[in-house]
Amino acid sequence: MAYFATLPIPSEATQTFAPLLPSTYRDGAGVELRGKPDALFTQAKSYTFIESKNGKLNYHLDKASSHRALQDEYTLRMHDGRDKDYNDLTAHFNRTNRSFMLDHAWNNSLFKVLALQAEHGWQRYVVCFKRNPSKADALRYIEAGLVFCTEKTLPDMLRTIELAQHGIFLPFQLKTRTYGYSVTPDHTDHGKPAAEIAASDRSRYEQRIAAIRTEAQRDDWY
């Protein structure tokens, strides 16, 4: 987080979207949850919330799936069949097996940040990785539709977002030695009501979730 304060763009640490954006969103099962960003950057005609990530994102489609995985592992390891609160489980694994916690906690799910991006739009909410994701992880994120950057490329991302508010639509590009990634603000969204854009983004997100569930069911069938 300290890195954000070194950038020439005004920023502040925050754990709430309010009052600028709704604090709630819906996960892949349609359950309403409360989201928490890490920082807010404010420019002349735009503002963008940032969620910082240090490591790869897991593949749980909704919070209930994450909770089940944590509960099952806790029961197996602790020989304790009692159902545990989700927050208690994440706290336990954060102390005892942080790697497992990151592999299964909802806060670290690709589909959690996708849900928030579908709720707010990627120009209002961007995932920022501390370092370049691996090629395999990056391709997984891109295929799922996530818009992301790294700490190094965050200024470029914010510049792309701000220019779009002035009617200038230039691509953001992330280039590594093994892969490249580019995203350009949709000029057809310029001037549209935020609710209309959000509804379209949410529809695409739900279609992606449905396709993954259908594929998983087909694999189970065969």
Poorly predicted regions are: none
Number of strands: 9
Could you give the order of strands across the largest sheet? 1-4-5-6-7
The amount of helix comes to: 40-55%
Tell me the β content.
15-25%
The count of domains is: 2
Shape: globular
Structural features, described:
The chain has helices at 2-5, 63-78, 86-96, 98-104, 110-120, 135-144, 154-165, 194-221, and strands at residues 11-13, 24-26, 32-34, 39-42, 47-53, 125-129, 148-150, 172-175, 180-183. The chain is of the alpha/beta class. The chain has 2 domains: 2-56 and 109-221, no CATH class; 62-108, no CATH class. The chain has a 5-stranded mixed beta sheet with strand order 1-4-5-6-7, sandwiched between helices. Strands 2-3 form a two-stranded antiparallel sheet. Helix 2 (63-78) crosses helix 3 and helix 3 (86-96) crosses helix 4 (98-104). The N and C termini lie far apart (46 Å). The model has no long low-confidence stretch (mean pLDDT 92).
